[in-house]
């Protein structure tokens, strides 16, 4: 079965041409070199990348500086000469001059992975030749010219050269049977030469170290993933690297390669299925593209039809107005023309004036006077019958043109991503997101959210309603108000550009606190020890430090003094209702107590004298175990939970796990009316611990610090107080 698999796994050599093409010259590899990133490039192509200019070339056998592919130029010098040049340092000397082969730079971009390859001072002399790839290319060339035989290099004229049957890797020549026997007689050192089938590719029998030319490579550096010699390991650049024997590396890499090949072959049916799926996707893409084209054409046709209708209507209105005005003006012209034609009216009036009979004159002159007066009035107050200006038909289409120009069809914008590290959800949610790296700016964003019903069986959210959309957001964050307490909300956002919406971002869920947020700052008046506690200017952060009294008592501390906690409280108290606040405790903190305490207990803590140098003072054990919490009675006027050294300590009386990893943010909820306090992981709103507390008088958020410790109140908790 294995033999059958191997037979089926043989890929014809004619099918591997794409693997034998240099990524620079796009032709079959010629003397390929292995770059540090394990990609191969022709020796000549690497050298061209490093040349100062096309003028800096080899003298007699150099390439010309004509543009075009490297393979279209004059052939380069022999490989042996190039190797001698690079190993002698002529291409990697510290200085350089024009008309030399010294490169200006020793860093090139890999054409395969685009990573910058640093070759160092030795340049390409540090690179190995890929002899395995050379042999494969040669076998491919032989398969490509299957009918062309390799001829014997030794046959003497006048006899024609015979077809070669062997090639000697030591002599670097090909021989027919007779010539091979003559040149490799039994009993001579040449009889021990290594020979292979006919080939034109002769490589060294042993791979030499490029850094130490006289040393063979016999080890493999697992850090650099390249063969090295023993000098490289002893005092070279691989001295501190992990190396393995070449035989071991050969065995491991060969097994890995064989397994990988076998895996690919075994997945042939899967690959064919995926190719079929891709063919279906190609067909669907073509069909959907054509459908989109038809829809776009239909949309524009409707626009064109609408514009054509409006154009026809406007032209009709202009034509009607023009005809009406022309008729009016022409009528006025006829009227005035009649005045000219009736110039005999004046002569007739003059004749009437000669009438001496008064009765006859009055009878005739009355009608004549009306006609004369009308003509006089029209001359005195001349007005055109219509306005020749068509200003009312001048269209301002700048807005419409701008709208058309803003119709961008450069593609749907990429969706933004909601930033969990910057988003916070309390009674209000501050949701922040990162916009895509698209160079075209978006117009606005839309945030959608909905409340999820919490499944008590799987403790997960299930769909419970439709999405609600915020107003347009022209930045990278927004605030959502009036969220229900102790609820699970899902959020998503999308971008809009030129009326084209991006897909929605992945949904993220946040659990709101079990009670409204309680805003406060640290109190710098009540019992605050400025000697041992450092308060930030905004009073939203406090840090403990060693006080002078502790330093003065250092000798007695060595003999067993107990150190007390330094307490600090919030500047706002609670007398009713349910309230929630959150904070962060630095991971390096030695010990921090967090919780609530009544005003009566605070008086006891702050006003009883303390002497850190006295071994009799035993307010707190100073250990991180939190064991002192276990000795409290069921109901006390305070409750403090211990955090420190990256841990959260649950009192022993609790049924929960005693030691938990410290959450990134800790939340505290006090139900004053029920007399109960809860401690939460504020990121997931998972309740970590709860207990009864005696709520007498006014209850305050309380913190106790000892050793190096730091507490930061959450911004949302302090925002309203800082604003006030």
From TrEMBL:
Domain of life the protein comes from: Eukaryota
UniProtKB keywords: Coiled coil, Cytoplasm, Cytoskeleton, Metal-binding, Microtubule, Repeat, Transferase, Ubl conjugation pathway, Zinc, Zinc-finger
Location of the B30.2/SPRY domain: 500-721
Domain RING-type: 22-64
Residues annotated as domain Fibronectin type-III: 412-515
Location of the protein in the cell: Cytoplasm, Cytoskeleton
COS domain ranges (all copies): 353-410
Chain intervals for the UniProt region annotation (Disordered): 60-79
Domain B box-type residues, every copy: 204-246
Keyword Transferase set for record: yes
InterPro entries (UniProt xref): B30.2/SPRY, B30.2/SPRY_sf, Bbox_C, Butyrophylin_SPRY, ConA-like_dom_sf, COS_domain, E3_ligase_FN3/SPRY, FN3_dom
Pfam families: ANCHR-like_BBOX, COS, SPRY, zf-B_box, zf-RING_UBOX
GO MF entries: ubiquitin-protein transferase activity; zinc ion binding
SMART domains reported for this sequence: BBC, BBOX, RING
Any one annotated GO CC term: acrosomal vesicle
GO terms classed as biological process: acrosome reaction; spindle organization
Composition bias, Low complexity: 65-79
Main location: cytoplasm
Homology family: Belongs to the TRIM/RBCC family.
PANTHER family cross-referenced by the UniProt entry: E3 UBIQUITIN-PROTEIN LIGASE TRIM36, E3 UBIQUITIN-PROTEIN LIGASE TRIM36-RELATED
Protein name per Swiss-Prot or TrEMBL: Tripartite motif containing 36
């Amino acid at each position: 079965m294995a033999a059958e698999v191997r037979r089926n796994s043989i890929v014809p050599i004619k099918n591997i041409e794409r693997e034998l093409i240099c990524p620079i010259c796009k032709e079959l590899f010629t003397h390929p070199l292995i770059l540090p990133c394990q990609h191969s490039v022709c020796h000549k192509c690497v050298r061209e990348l490093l040349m100062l200019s096309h003028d800096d070339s080899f003298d007699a056998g150099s390439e010309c500086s004509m543009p075009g592919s490297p393979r279209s130029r004059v052939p380069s010098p022999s490989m042996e000469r190039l190797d001698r040049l690079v190993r002698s340092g002529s291409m990697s000397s510290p200085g350089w001059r024009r008309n030399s082969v010294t490169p200006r730079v020793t860093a090139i971009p890999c054409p395969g992975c685009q990573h910058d390859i640093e070759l160092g001072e030795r340049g390409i002399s540090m690179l190995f030749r890929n002899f395995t790839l050379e042999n494969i290319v040669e076998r491919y060339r032989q398969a490509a010219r299957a009918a062309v035989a390799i001829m014997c290099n030794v046959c003497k004229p006048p006899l024609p050269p015979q077809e070669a049957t062997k090639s000697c890797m030591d002599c670097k020549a090909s021989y027919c049977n007779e010539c091979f026997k003559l040149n490799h007689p039994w009993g001579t050192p040449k009889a021990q030469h290594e020979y292979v089938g006919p080939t034109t590719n002769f490589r060294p029998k042993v791979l030499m170290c490029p850094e130490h030319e006289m040393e063979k490579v016999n080890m493999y550096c697992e850090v650099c993933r390249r063969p090295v010699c023993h000098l490289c390991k002893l005092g070279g650049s691989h001295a501190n690297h992990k190396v393995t024997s070449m035989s071991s590396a050969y065995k491991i890499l060969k097994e890995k390669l064989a397994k990988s090949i076998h895996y690919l072959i075994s997945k042939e049916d899967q690959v064919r299925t995926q190719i079929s799926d891709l063919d279906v996707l190609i067909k669907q893409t073509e069909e959907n593209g054509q459908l989109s084209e038809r829809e776009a054409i239909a949309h524009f046709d409707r626009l064109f039809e609408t514009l054509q209708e409006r154009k026809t209507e406007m032209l009709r209105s202009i034509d009607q107005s023009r005809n009406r005005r022309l008729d009016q003006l022409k009528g006025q012209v006829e009227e005035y023309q009649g005045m000219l034609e009736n110039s005999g009216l004046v002569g007739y009036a003059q004749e009437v004036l000669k009438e001496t009979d008064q009765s006859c004159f009055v009878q005739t002159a009355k009608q004549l006077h009306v006609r004369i007066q009308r003509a006089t009035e029209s001359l005195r107050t001349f007005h055109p019958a219509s306005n020749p200006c068509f200003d009312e038909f001048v269209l301002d289409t700048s807005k419409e043109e701008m709208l058309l120009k803003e119709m961008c069809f450069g593609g749907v914008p990429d969706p933004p991503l909601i930033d969990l590290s910057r988003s916070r959800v309390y009674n209000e949610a501050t949701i922040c997101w990162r916009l895509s790296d698209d160079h075209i700016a978006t117009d606005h964003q839309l945030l959608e959210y909905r409340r999820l019903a919490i499944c008590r069986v799987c403790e997960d959210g299930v769909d419970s309603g439709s999405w609600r959309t915020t107003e347009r957001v022209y930045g990278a964050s927004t605030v959502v108000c009036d969220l229900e307490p102790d609820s699970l909300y899902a959020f998503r956002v999308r971008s809009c550009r030129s009326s084209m919406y991006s897909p929605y971002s992945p949904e993220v869920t946040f659990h709101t606190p079990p009670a409204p947020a309680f805003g406060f700052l640290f109190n710098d008046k009540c019992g605050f020890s400025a000697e041992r506690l450092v308060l930030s200017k905004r009073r939203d952060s406090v840090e403990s430090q060693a006080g002078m009294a502790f330093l003065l008592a250092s000798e007695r501390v060595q003999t067993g003094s107990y150190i007390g906690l330094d307490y600090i409280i919030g500047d706002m108290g609670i007398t009713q209702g349910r309230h929630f606040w959150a904070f962060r405790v630095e991971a390096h903190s030695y010990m921090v107590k967090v919780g609530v305490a009544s005003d009566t207990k605070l008086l006891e803590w702050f006003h009883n004298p303390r002497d850190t140098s006295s071994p009799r003072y035993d307010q707190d054990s100073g250990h991180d175990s939190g064991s002192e919490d276990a000795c409290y009675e069921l109901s006390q006027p305070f409750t403090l939970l211990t955090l420190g050294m990256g841990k959260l300590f649950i009192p022993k009386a609790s049924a929960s796990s005693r030691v938990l990893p410290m959450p990134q943010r800790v939340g505290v909820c006090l139900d004053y009316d029920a007399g109960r306090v809860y401690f939460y992981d504020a990121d997931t709103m998972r309740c970590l611990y709860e207990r009864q507390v005696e709520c007498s008088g006014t209850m305050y958020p309380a913190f106790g610090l000892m050793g190096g410790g730091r507490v930061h109140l959450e911004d949302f908790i302090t925002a309203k107080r800082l604003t006030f």
